[in-house]
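Notes from hallway chat w/ T.B., transcribed later so I don't forget. T.B. wanted the structure written out for a chain they're using in a teaching module, and asked if we could keep both sequence and C-alpha cells in one place. Agreed to drop them here.
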Amino acid sequence: MIGKLQKPGVVFWLSLLWLLLVLGCAFTAHWWPLPPLDQVDWGNQAALPGSESLTEALAQQHPIHLLGTDSVGRDILARLLFGARISLCIGFFSTLIGMMLGGGLGMLAGYYRGRVELLIVGAMDTILAFPGLVLLLAMTYLFGSSLTNITLILGGLVTPAFCRVARANTLRFAELEFITAARACGAKDVTILLREILPNILIPVSIYALLVVAFLIIVEGGLGFLGLSVPAPTPSWGGMIAEGYGVMAQAPHVSLIPMLAMFLTILSFNLLGDRLRSLTEVRESRL
C-alpha cells in the first residue's frame, strides 16, 4: 500500500520565501527610496547601520543609511539590492545557457549512442579536462569582464555538467516500452526527443539547475573578489565583499552584510534543490 507523499517541510518554504524576497527586491530596486549607487556621503565612510547622512544634499532625501555605508561612503542597502541583480542574472542566465546547450547535447548522446555519443562525450570531457578557474580567468582576460561575457563564459563552463545529467536521464528512458511503441508507430526521432524524452528529463535537469545557480553565484563572488567581475561602479555581491576587505578590522559590516546575503541565497538554492530532488525520488520509487 502506497503511503502519503512527504510534505516539503518548513525548510523548503523558508528557502523559497527568502529567494522570492531576494528576487522581489532585485526587480523592484529602482522603486525603493534609496540613494544613487555612486552617491558618496562625504566624511561618513564605513558608517554603522542606522547612521545619519552627513552630506547636506543627501540628508534631505535620505537621512539614514539603514545598513550603513561602504569604505567609500556609498549606501550599502542600495548597492546590495542592485548587486543582487548582477549575481542573480549571472546565476540564472548562465545556468539557462548551460542547461539548453548541455541538455540538448546530452539528449542526443543518450538517444543515438554510437559515434554521436562518442563525439559529444569526448568534447565534454575535453572541456572538463581544463582547470575551470584557469580557463575562466583566461577567458575573462581575453574577452573582458562585462556582464554579457561573464554570463556566456560561465554558461559554456557548466554545459558539460548538464550534458552528463541529461545523457544519464535519457539513457533511462530511451529503451523503455513507450519509446519503442513510438518508434513502431512511425514517430520521427525529433518527435520522440521533444514529446517523449524531454518532458521526462526536464524535472531532474531543472532540479540540478538550482544547485548550479548556487554554484555560479559563488563563482561570481570569487571573480568579484579578484576584481574580475563586472567593472565598477556597477555593484555585485562579490565586489562589495572585496571592497570591505580593507576596513574589515574597523568596520566588518561592510563585507559581512553582502556576505550574509550571498550565504543565505546560496544556502536557500541548495536546500530547495536537495528537497525537490528527495521528493522526486520518493515519488518515482512509489510509482
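Follow-up for T.B.: The CA atoms of residues 33 and 62 lie 8 Å apart. Might be a good example for the class.
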